């Protein structure tokens, strides 16, 4: 079977009476536009999607009229920091340092109203030691990551910088289309420096 587009979401009313055959897609494969996947039920799919497509949790990629194939994010090792466990001015400072460290690693972040999650990029022991050294209350846990994409971070931004120079006094920055974000829209940052 071949999947060439996202057909909808598993919660769409049109799929209410369908059987669901989940296919487990880890966060690292959610942006791959070409791959071969095997569902939990054993169905093999050749996936060829438009570049930039993100396979979100619950996305329906196949429908035979009886059964739908829906993306399901498996649990993976991650560093998890609950905001409620880290309160006060000093906790904010420590969290900013933690964010700086993750930014230097270009680690993707999933930030909700109450929690930060990032994939385990080192050993569990190293991550736990980093949390201890920053005096952050956090843990290494096994959780589903990036169900609907990552919070926009430096890991999501692949800027193309074009520099053009002229001899006027106008210093301006123009922004035009091209860069893909998980929210489904595109933009890029073309930086024009006029002298």
Task: Describe the protein's architecture and organization.
- By secondary structure, the chain is α+β, with helices and mostly antiparallel strands.
- Helices cover 13% and strands 31% of the residues.
- It has two helices and 13 strands.
- The strands form four sheets. Strands 2-6-7-3 form a four-stranded mixed sheet, with no helix packed on it.
- The protein is elongated.
- The termini are far apart.
Largest sheet: 4 strands, mixed
Detail the poorly predicted runs.
153-195
Number of strands: 13
The backbone outline, from C-alpha atoms, is: elongated
Give the helices and strands, then pairings.
Blueprint: E1 2-3, E2 8-9, E3 19-24, E4 34-38, E5 44-48, E6 59-63, E7 67-72, E8 75-82, H1 89-104, E9 110-111, E10 115-119, H2 124-133, E11 139-144, E12 176-180, E13 186-188
Parallel strand pairs: 1-5, 3-7
Antiparallel strand pairs: 2-6, 4-5, 6-7, 8-10, 8-11, 9-10, 12-13
């Amino acid at each position: 079977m071949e999947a060439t587009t996202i057909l909808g979401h598993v919660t769409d009313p049109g799929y209410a009476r369908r059987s669901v055959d989940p296919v487990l897609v880890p966060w690292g494969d959610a942006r791959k536009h070409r791959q071969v996947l095997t569902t939990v039920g054993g169905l093999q799919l050749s996936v060829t999607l438009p570049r930039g497509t993100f396979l979100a949790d619950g996305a329906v990629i196949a429908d035979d009229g009886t059964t739908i194939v829906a993306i399901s994010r498996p649990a993976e090792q991650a560093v998890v920091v609950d905001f409620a466990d880290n309160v006060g001015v000093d906790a904010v400072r420590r969290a900013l340092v933690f964010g700086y460290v993750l930014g230097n690693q270009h680690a993707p972040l999933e930030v909700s109203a109450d929690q930060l999650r990032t994939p385990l990029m080192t050993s569990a022991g190293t991550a736990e030691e980093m949390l201890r050294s920053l005096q952050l209350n956090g843990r290494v846990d096994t959780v589903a990551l990036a169900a609907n994409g990552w919070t926009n971070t430096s890991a999501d931004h692949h800027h193309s910088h074009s520099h053009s120079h002229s001899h006027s006094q106008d210093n301006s920055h123009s922004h035009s289309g091209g860069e893909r974000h998980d929210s489904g829209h595109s933009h890029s940052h073309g930086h024009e420096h006029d002298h």
